[in-house]
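Ticket #4471: structure output looks truncated?

Reporter: J.K.
Steps to reproduce: submitted the chain below (181 residues) through the standard prediction queue, then opened the result file.
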Amino acid sequence: MKTLALFRHAKSDWSDARARDFDRPLNARGQRGALAMGQHIRKGGWRFDRMIASPAVRVAETIETASKAWGRTFPVEWDRRIYLASSAVLLDLLREIAGDPGSVLMVGHNPGLEDLIFDLVPDDGSSPLRDVVEQKFPTATFAVLELAIDRWADIEERCAKLVELTRPRDLDPALGPELPD
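Returned output as attached by the reporter:
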């Protein structure tokens, strides 16, 4: 059994239309969301043997902010392939993990992370949280999957159960979507 945690970067800043997508930082709401999710991860007692992440600025800032709330830092393996990757690319990357750690945290982007959940978790009612992901996998969302595999090289579609899904608005309604009056 392996554990895969997925953490989507927090809300990013779109105020500078000239900035490259890769270079967009977090906005104020994103900072609050990353901090809240870091606190949630700490309180949940989640531990990771390895962290792999997109090197995009908004991902790096999400990790930095969440780590403050965790009260510790984790060594990060930066992999540019995660940046805007498809589920197929993410699966290939997971199959390449050396040393077969028991738990991996991947920090990245949508639609890749969301699609990865859809590919790994069967749509057969065994993981009711999958239905929540179908509604939306918003920024700063944290998900944990249990994979019925012994080695990362064996990862394949429909081998997982989604056991944890927390969105920022689940922790603080003010971090939810902005609704019109």
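Triage note (M.O.): checked the attachment and the full token line is present. The two ends are 47 Å apart (CA to CA).
Status: closed, working as intended.
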